[in-house]
Specification:
The complex is a heterodimer of chains A (about 150) and B (about 170). With about 150 residues, chain A is mainly β. Chain A has helices at about 10-20, 60-65, 100-105; strands at about 5-10, 25-30, 35-45, 50-55, 70-75, 80-95, 120-135. A six-stranded antiparallel barrel of chain A has the order 2-3-4-7-6-5. The longest helix of chain A is centred in the first third of the chain and has 10 residues, at about 10-20. By secondary structure, chain B is α+β, with helices and mostly antiparallel strands. Chain B is about 25% helix and about 35% strand. In chain B, strands 1, 2, 3, 4, 5, 6, 7, 8 and 9 form a nine-stranded antiparallel β-sheet that branches. In chain B, a hairpin with a 2-residue loop joins β2 (about 40-45) and β3. The chains are: A mainly beta (about 150), B alpha+beta (about 170). The interface between A and B is medium-sized, with 38 and 32 residues.
Chain lengths: ~150, ~170
Amino acid sequence: MTESWLEELSRQECLDFLAENAVGRIGIVHDGRPSVFPINYRLVEFEDRPCLVMRTRPGNVIDNADTDVAFEIDGIDLYHQRGWSVLVHGVLRQVEADRELLAVHFDSDTWIAEGRTTWLILEPEVITGRRLVQPALQWAFRQSGYL
Amino acid sequence: MANKRIEAARVQTTLLSTAPASLESLSSPDMSELLRNHQFGRFVFAYDGWPVVTPVNYVFEDPTIVIRTDLGAKLSAAPFQAVAFEIDDADPSGHWGWSVLAQGPAFDITSAFDDRSQRLRELSVKPWAPGVHDHWLTLTAVRLSGRRFGNVPGLEHRFAPMSRLGEIRV
């Protein structure tokens, strides 16, 4: 079998994946130690720039971490051993604004909403994405044999 | 009688689906089992203070996460530093989900002579990505933490939702 290869995703492909998904992983560094947590998010336009909006509990580890963060989403096809991933780097900011208004326009539809009253916005500085492509699967027999 | 049962089932479904989800901690045996039963996760390291999250194939040999890599950012930034590794899964509609986070130091065991490193290098770690991957990185899981919500398939037997049944009034 020919070997698989990696492709860079275009900016638009990355944004499309970010728009289609609802759960990602936020990577943070706290006291020099990196960690990563699944989180619900929503891609929104904010001042003509794409931004990721999230909610968290005030005072938790994400809220307390350094504001230089990474955000990752991926889609994996275990059976065919292929997939894609998008990695965003940027600065995480707390949003001080009318919460009602935020909820109407930006809610990340957090699955576990209880107590998650801090609104965070991630403005991407760098967005990169890759796709792992496997060569097209070959027919085990001559295709005409099935016709 | 049959109607009553259907009604009961309906009430139960409603209760299970509308009850507000809350996070619960995973036990150590559950976390180990989840790590053993998966082969794909995300390796996290700090590069000049910035976190980097990269999908990787791995093998878990308690308490060590073993991955293979090329020359690159992972190999130059991770060894002897605190790193993290994460696996997770969730129902697309948000009814259940879980995640396991391992944290600890990373080591490059590519040319280590000790018995354990040699044994770890015999594990079948198969990266899907193209390339040589002739460097072996480990994360010693000093700290494991895991969370779940909802009825996770495969784990329900340990988290029987029986307590909810008591709430049903037909």
